[in-house]
Write a structure and sequence with these properties.
single chain; alpha/beta; Aspartate Aminotransferase, domain 2; 7-stranded mixed sheet; 4-stranded mixed sheet; 16 strands; 40% helix; 15% strand; binds pyridoxal-5'-phosphate
C-alpha cells in the first residue's frame, strides 16, 4: 500500500467531512469553555478534526445536527449496546422519573433486588452491589479483594483497560519490564509498585508474577477488547483460574465489553468461575450504571472484616458513591435486562456480527491483505495484522492510526460510524442486515480505492 496515496485519499476525505458538516464544525468552534472543546476529552478522538454533534439517536441510527443519518456501530462504545433509547428503557425511565417520581433518594427500590437476582442467574455469582460506572465497580472490587486476601498488589495484562483505575495503567515494554503506560496522567505513585503485569495468553508470565505471593487479584477481561480484540487461546482462561487457586489469588473478570458474547458474557459461554465479576455501560440501556458481583465465599470474608470493624463499607471506607444504585439507574437496568438485552436479542446480534465479519474477511481475502478480523458475539473488529494478535503488545504493535483515520472518515462520509478507538463495531438488537451490508460494501470500496484497484 502506498502511504502517499493513503495520505492523499485521507486529505480528500477530510475536506469532504469538513464541507458536509458545517453545523457540527460551528458548534465545535464556539465551544470555548470545554477542555479540548469537547464535553469529555476522549471525544477529540473522532477523526476529521472535530466531532459530529448529535441531534437524535433512535435504535441503531444517529442523526447529526447537519441532518446526516448514520448506521451506528459505535453505539456509545458499548454504552448503547441495547440500542439508542430502546422503548422499554425509556418507558421505565418515564415511569420512575415522571409517574412515580424519585430519581435518587438514598432509599432502595424493588428493582435493585430484581437486577441482582438476574445478574446472579446470568453470571452465577450470588451477591451484587451497584455503582454508576464500570470504573468504580472495578475500583471497589479491587479494594474488596485486597481486604479479604490481606495482599497489596493486583495483576493485570499488558495493554489492558478497565477504566481510570490507577493500578491498571501498566504495560510490559519491549524488554519485558513493567512500566507506567505511556501517557498515564498524573499517577500518585509508580503503578509498578501496586501492580504486577503479564502477557495475555501467556500462562508462564502469569505464574512467574503470582509466585511472589503478594497478588490479591488478577483483573482481566476474558478477551482483551481495548487494544483491538485479543481472544483467549484454548486453555488460557482455565489456566488462569488454576493458577489463581494455586497461589491464593482471586480472579476478577471484567465483562463490561465482553458481555457482547451473550447474556452472561464469557463467564457463561466459557464456563468461567470468577470470584468477582464487573459490569457496566450497556446494562443500563444508556443510563449510568455499574455493578460488581461476589461469590458467597468472598462475600463471607468481606462480612467478617466488616463485623470486626476492619472495613467500613457503609460510610467512608472507600467503596461507595452517593448516587450508586439509585432508583433511576436500577429501573433502567431492570428494563434493559428483562426486555432488551435478552437471550434472543444476543442471538440476533451475534448473527449480524458474523455477517459483518464475513463481509470484512471477504475483502481481506480478495486482496490478500495481511489483516485479520475477530469477533466476540455481537462485537467485531479488524486489525492490521495476520494472524490476529495474541497479546496486548502484539495488538498495540499492529496499530495504524493513519489507516484508522482514512477508514473512519471514508465510512462516516458515507453514513457509517465506527467507534473512534481502533476499529470496533458493535451490533445492538435494532441493527439491521442492511446496516451491516452498507458497511461491507463501503469497506470493500475504501480498500479498493486505497489499493488503486
Ligand atoms: C473492560 C472495561 N472495563 C471498564 C471500563 C470503564 O467503563 P466506564 O468508563 O464506563 O467507567 C471500560 C471502558 O471502556 C472497559 O472497556
Amino acid at each position: 500500500m502506498s502511504r502517499d496515496r493513503l495520505h492523499r485519499l485521507t486529505a480528500a476525505e477530510r475536506e469532504r467531512y469538513a464541507a458536509s458538516h458545517p453545523a457540527s464544525r460551528a458548534l465545535f468552534d464556539q465551544a470555548s469553555h470545554l477542555i479540548g472543546r469537547v464535553p469529555m476529552t476522549w471525544m477529540s478522538k473522532w477523526s476529521g478534526g472535530f466531532p459530529l454533534y448529535l441531534d437524535t439517536a433512535v435504535a441503531a441510527t444517529v442523526t447529526d445536527v447537519d441532518g446526516h443519518r448514520y448506521a451506528d456501530f459505535a453505539l456509545g462504545d458499548t454504552g448503547a449496546m441495547a440500542g439508542h433509547s430502546a422503548p422499554p428503557v425509556t418507558a421505565a425511565i418515564n415511569r420512575r422519573a415522571i409517574e412515580r417520581g424519585g430519581l435518587t433518594a438514598m432509599l432502595p427500590t424493588e428493582d435493585a433486588e430484581w437486577v441482582a437476582a438476574e445478574l446472579a442467574r446470568r453470571f452465577g455469582l450470588p451477591l451484587w452491589s451497584f455503582s454508576l460506572s464500570a470504573t468504580d465497580a472495578n475500583r471497589w472490587a479491587i479494594r474488596v479483594a485486597r481486604l479479604v486476601t490481606g495482599r497489596s498488589k493486583i495483576l493485570v495484562f499488558s495493554y489492558c483497560y478497565h477504566g481510570s483505575v490507577d493500578e491498571t495503567f501498566v504495560i510490559l515494554d519491549d524488554d519485558g519490564a513493567a512500566r507506567s503506560r505511556p501517557g498515564n496522567v498524573g499517577p500518585a505513585l509508580d503503578p509498578t509498585s501496586t501492580t504486577r503485569v503479564a502477557h495475555f495468553n501467556d500462562l508462564e508470565s502469569v505464574r512467574a508474577e503470582l509466585e511472589h505471593g503478594d497478588v490479591a487479584v488478577i483483573v482481566t477481561e476474558p478477551a482483551l477488547t481495548n487494544i483491538g480484540i485479543v481472544l483467549p487461546e484454548p486453555g488460557f482462561l482455565d489456566g488462569l483460574r488454576r493458577l489463581a487457586d494455586q497461589h491464593g489469588t482471586l480472579l476478577l473478570i471484567d465483562e463490561t465489553h465482553t458481555l457482547s458474547a451473550g447474556p452472561g458474557g464469557m463467564t457463561a459461554t466459557e464456563r468461567l468461575r470468577p470470584d468477582i465479576v464487573v459490569l457496566g455501560k450497556s446494562i443500563g440501556g444508556g443510563v449510568a450504571c455499574g455493578a460488581y458481583g461476589l461469590t458467597e465465599a468472598v462475600a463471607a470474608r468481606l462480612g467478617e472484616h466488616t463485623r470486626a470493624g476492619a472495613a467500613d463499607i457503609e460510610d467512608v471506607g472507600g467503596v461507595g458513591g452517593t448516587l450508586a444504585g439509585n432508583a433511576l439507574s436500577t429501573a433502567a437496568m431492570r428494563a434493559t435486562l428483562s426486555e432488551v438485552l435478552t437471550e434472543q436479542a444476543f442471538d440476533t446480534m451475534s448473527g449480524l456480527a458474523a455477517r459483518y465479519t464475513a463481509g470484512v474477511q471477504a475483502t481481506i481475502d480478495r486482496h490478500g491483505l495481511p489483516w485479520s478480523v475477530s469477533r466476540l458475539g455481537a462485537r467485531a473488529e479488524y486489525r492490521f495484522a495476520s494472524p490476529a494478535p495474541r497479546t496486548g503488545n502484539d495488538s498495540a504493535a499492529a496499530a495504524d492510526p493513519d489507516l484508522d483515520e482514512y477508514l473512519h472518515l471514508y465510512l462516516a462520509n458515507r453514513g457509517v460510524l465506527l467507534t473512534p478507538f481502533h476499529n470496533v463495531a458493535l451490533m445492538c438488537p435494532a441493527t439491521e442486515a442492511a446496516d451491516v451490508d452498507l458497511h461491507t460494501g463501503l469497506f470493500a470500496d475504501a480498500v479498493a480505492d486505497l489499493l488503486g484497484r
